[in-house]
Design brief:
With 393 residues, the protein is α/β, with parallel strands linked by helices. The chain is 43% helix and 16% strand. The chain has 15 helices and 12 strands. The longest helix has 29 residues. It starts with a strand and ends with a helix. The site of magnesium ion (MG) has 6 residues, from helix 6.
Length: 393
């Protein structure tokens, strides 16, 4: 049943229209208002689906009432009743957000069809608005994946250190670290945890996946960071199909704000899956010919698999040593992918305590954390987005 309000200064006209509407199924007239102010007030307070406004209503013009209502009650259909039937009235009504024009003297068939259209529109709009409201309550976490152009360049280091840093510095956001370097799985070597469960345990339950069951398979590091690890037993890798992974990430996106992934250095099906679905893919390189050749091979593989274009990958240059023959400034010339202006110097001495203690927090060098923060800022909120207060540091 659609609830209709009438805005008519002329009572006789309103009575005539009410009588016609009474013959139409699925509609009822819930109010007849004689001024624009009363009409707007009624529509804002009482549940109303359709408003029919006479162009002689005052003091505010009918089009201004329509404009006001379509802004404040976007799910309501407003139609104008025109005694003049001028083209300009139609144009003005539509521009103001109205759904149609009825002419006076009334024609039953015309009213019937206009009301049917308006009702259908109200139903559609209701569904759209309900979907938007439901969507607004759902988080949609950002997936940020680090892949190594070749082995040993630092992909796991960045993924782990960035996740730990985000967790500490941006406590209002929920962060999770996912190890998708399935063959090697060295996140747990970098962060000391009891490794009993893994992403394979979630993949096994494919069809019955829920966020609770995913959380049962996570482990928590001393720093409080939640992690979903790679399986210890390589035979378990077979369970982790691209479909299962997509489902895992769909669930994670609903629960977490930032999902940091170690995607390893090999173009495996798991890597391709995450490279395709990630919001940001960072290829970590070192500034040397061999590594840039590997980068080219990797991005070509992603392009030919159709999972990601080279220019949608960001390149991060690590272990920069000014005394190297190959200058890091040459990297942007050798790839179509955008290269981070932030480059990370060779810092083995400072990173050593993190490796020994299996805890990124053991790194005390400020410069390291400044760099991690800079990289994080660019990939978690995007360069234009406002920064979360804590992470802005
Ligand atoms: N900027 C840096 N300066 C010096 N050493 C670094 C730097 N970044 C990372 N490392 C060191 O390089 C080694 C390899 O790093 P990491 O394990 O993160 O690489 P990876 O790309 O994940 O390698 P793998 O292919 O083995 O997974 C580690 O010992 C790490 O501490
Ligand atoms: Mg690694």
């Amino acid at each position: 049943m659609k609830r209709i309000a009438l805005g008519f200064a002329d009572r006789a006209m309103a009575t005539e229209l009410s009588a016609i509407l009474a013959e139409i199924e699925q509609v009822e007239v819930v109010g007849v208002l004689t001024s624009s102010a009363e009409l707007v007030d009624h529509c804002l307070r009482q549940e109303t689906d359709i408003v029919l406004i006479h162009d002689g209503l005052g003091p505010d013009s009918a089009t201004s009432v329509i404009r006001d209502l379509s802004f404040r009650r976007p799910g309501m259909a407003s139609l104008i009743v025109s005694s003049t039937g001028e083209t300009q009235t139609v144009v003005d009504t539509m521009e103001a957000g109205g759904r149609g024009v009825l002419t006076y003297p009334f024609v039953f068939e015309q009213i019937l069809s206009r009301i049917a259209n308006a009702s259908a529109w109200v139903d559609q709009m209701g569904a759209v608005l309900a979907g938007r409201a439901a969507g607004a309550g759902v988080r949609r976490g950002k997936v940020v994946a680090f892949a190594g152009a070749k082995g040993g360049v630092g992909a796991t280091t960045f993924a782990a250190h960035l996740a730990v840093d985000l967790h500490q510095e941006w406590p209002t956001a929920k962060t999770i670290l996912v190890d998708l370097d399935l063959e090697k799985g060295d996140v747990s070597a970098m962060l000391d945890v009891r490794h009993t469960v893994s992403i394979a345990d979630v993949a096994k339950i494919a069809g019955d996946m829920t966020i609770d069951r995913i959380q049962d398979a996570t482990v928590v590091h001393d720093s409080g960071l939640t992690m979903l690890l790679a399986p210890q037993d390589v035979r378990e890798v077979d369970f982790i199909s691209p479909e299962a992974l997509r489902s895992v990430f769909n669930h994670l996106r609903r629960e977490y704000d930032v999902i940091i992934v170690d995607a390893g250095a090999h173009a495996t099906p798991a890597q391709a899956t995450v490279v395709e679905l990630a919001d940001e893919v960072i290829a970590v390189v070192t500034a040397d010919v061999l590594c840039l050749r590997s980068l080219h091979r990797l991005t070509t593989a992603w392009e030919s698999l159709g999972v990601r274009k080279e220019h949608d990958v960001r390149v991060l240059v690590n272990k920069v040593d000014k005394s190297d023959l190959f200058p890091s400034s040459a990297v942007p010339k050798l790839t179509r992918a955008p290269v981070f202006t932030t480059e990370v110097p060779q810092m083995a001495r400072y990173l050593e305590p993190a490796v020994t203690n299996r805890d990124p927090r053991a790194v005390t060098e400020k410069q390291w954390w400044t760099l991690i923060r800079e990289i994080g800022r660019q990939v978690t909120t995007g360069p234009d987005a406002p920064l979360p207060a804590a992470a802005a540091g």
